[in-house]
Structure prediction request, 547 residues.
Amino acid sequence: MTTTTVPPPVLGLLARITGDEKHDPSAHSTLDVVWVLYDQVLDVAPDRTDDPGRDRFLLSKGHGPASTYAVLAAKGFIPHAWLDDVASWESRLGHHPDRVLVPGIEIGSGSLGHGLPIAVGLALGLRIQHSSARVVVLVGDGELDEGSNAEAIATAARLGLGNLTCVVVDNRSDKLGWPGGIAARFAVEGWVSADVAGRDHAALRTALLRTAPDRPTVVVAATTDEFRGADQSDTAVTDLTAKGAAA
Amino acid sequence: MTRTPMRERFYAELGSVLDEDPRVAVVLAVIGAAALADTSARHPDRVIDVGIREQTMVGVAGGLALAGMRPIVHTYAPFLVERAYEQVKLDLGHQDVGALLVSTGASYDASTAGRTHQAPADVALISALPGWTVHVPGHADELARIVRREASTSRRVYVRMSSLQNATAHPVDGLLHLVRGGAHALPLVVAVGPLLDTVLEATSDLPVRVAYTSTPHPLDTQGLRTLAGPAPSLALVEPYLEGTSAAAVAAALADRPSRVLHVGVPRGQELRRYGSPKDHAAAHGLDAAGIRARVKELLG
Prediction:
């Protein structure tokens, strides 16, 4: 499943960023997840970007934020014209997003391994204040290499953060593989886990809407042709220099 | 390890700060958790011990601040500042949120623990990041006033506790205060935090004035310019990495000819000895004899 069903206007917005009308949207591994989140899952709106009760989407994997920018533009958070000069001197949109500059961007990210620990604190802070808002944080499978994620995975589970969902977009870019599968790394700590096909909007929606009251949830969204199995012998190793280019 | 007066006072203050302000949450990585057991029982949701996970400790603080809470983060200086430095830079500063970081184990307080538990570069590192205020209280009463005041703000604040403290508390208004006056032409010795009494002892019979601050960053540059006068002869004595305040002092005095001496923990070599903090102070030239010898350079 490598084709996307994200609506053509959103793909058009994405093309304004990439500057390439023929660019294969499937190269943007986060596009479908981010679209489904903003279109069908999150309680957010452009006129409520400071509302304490809004849901939070944290793009931890700050590399390749083009799909997030395109979705924010499609949903009215930022002007479409912002997409035409990304990373220029005058632009608020960079190759890594900055929450201070972009309405709807909840964290500045780029250095890997920061989003999940921040999401744990955010979910905890919302729970302390009896907010019903959810926190959804998107990390990459390669990003999971950062040890800070291991700290946060254990902490979130022990704190019983039912308002936290971690989406792992698995495009098999991690360097050394995850024997046993990524979901198992979370499940062993007590997370509710689900493996879904990363381009299947119905499956993504179902998985992203599912939460448990006393446990965090992980959704591993595979954006390569096959689900990741226990056998990692055929794991494609992505050149790290290409990681910044592909969303 | 017995707890020092400043640290004891910090744990006591946290209890009432949590009682009074529902915005405050304390984030720990094991260190301090036992001392806060009673407080934690009263506020189980707002005393958060993440285990031995300092990256997550600071990341969680960033998330709490994004949720509108006021995080107070506490552990040993090297683990708070050096181990989690990128988290301090990105999860707080880059997100444009604040936290109150309170360290224990200043410079060589943990002398018997060795280099792993010492971080004389902490103030230099924190003050290299934008938007931070650094307090180095010289007395438990100063610490208590600083913690209570800063807990009610949303600023990025680093507080450096020490086992060393002065006999009496001084103002904690962020300004430079003259402790021992004299003719305006006399050299000025600025003592930071818990080194004040040592500086006073070291210079008791020397022709110098002595001033004090518990807030080295941002330095009270206006106060320094006023006290230092048109042609300053100045020594700045800090209980951490020597020259930490050099750039701030140089900028403050850029418009006048000045002679400035920076006294602190030497940068050149790791001291591979245990012993007491007193032993380390002597080895670093930060006991009364060492400071006296350095200040006399100004008088020669």
